[in-house]
Amino acid sequence: RVRILGYAALSKSFPTKLEAQRWASLTEAAARGRTLAVCRDATLADLIDEYTPKAKKSTQALLRHWRTALGSLRLRDVTPLLISKHRDLLLGAPTRSFGQKTLKPRSPSTVLHYLAALSSAFRFGIRELHWCESNPVANVSKPAQSRWRTRFLSDEERSALMKECGGHPHLYAAVLLSVTTGVRAGELYRLTWGDI
Q1: Listed residue (80, 186, 53, 59) closest to 141, CA to CA
Q2: What Cα–Cα distance (Å) separates residue 58 from each residue in 24, 62, 63, 167?
Q3: 156 with 101: CB under 8 angstroms?
Q4: Which of 109, 120, 119 is nearest to 139 (CA)?
Q5: CA distances from 83 to 23, 90, 137, 151, 192 (A)
Q6: pLDDT 10s digit of each residue in the chain, 196 long?
Q7: What share of the chain is helix, strand, coil (3-state, %, to 5)?
């Protein structure tokens, strides 16, 4: 049994006294170095609840998935193997993008965002809260991103497109704004005067 000021009492059983003394000295050293996990029974849902107010809105949406899928598990029970199984489930799952009517398989880059969100929550748990000692996402292999490239219209293509849109004033304005700013269709149609 180890009692350290500022931490709950910790206890563990060992077959020999030497192993017990070794564990006690390592635990005390971790406490002095501020790397000892304070909250041994915290769940992943607890960690996500603490981190969510500090995360970006896009990250908060991804964290909701992890909270639903693995939230009931204690932090020490969230292993790289478990995360890699959920990574594979995410890769194969059909999803619908904003404004899309058809379902498509989730892309590897989207799954990378899910893993990055979970990893940032664990980093917060290690550095700020001292609830966990390691980041299990760091030991999970990441899916390869697609290698498609961004292509821009040539001058001739742009001129032909603008000529075709000339008869429709609203379409012409939308295409002109898109070509000159690079704004996406969903962003374009959600613009308000305050944005302009």
Answers
A1: 80
A2: 42, 7, 9, 38
A3: no
A4: 119
A5: 28, 10, 7, 35, 41
A6: 777 655 556 677 888 988 888 878 877 776 665 555 556 678 899 899 989 999 998 899 999 999 999 999 988 889 999 999 999 999 878 887 666 677 888 888 889 999 999 999 999 988 887 778 789 999 999 988 766 667 788 889 999 999 999 888 889 988 998 888 888 888 888 888 888 7
A7: 60, 5, 35
Q: pTM for this one?
A: 0.60
d(CA 62, CA 99): 19
Please give the structure tokens belonging to residue 28: 């005390």
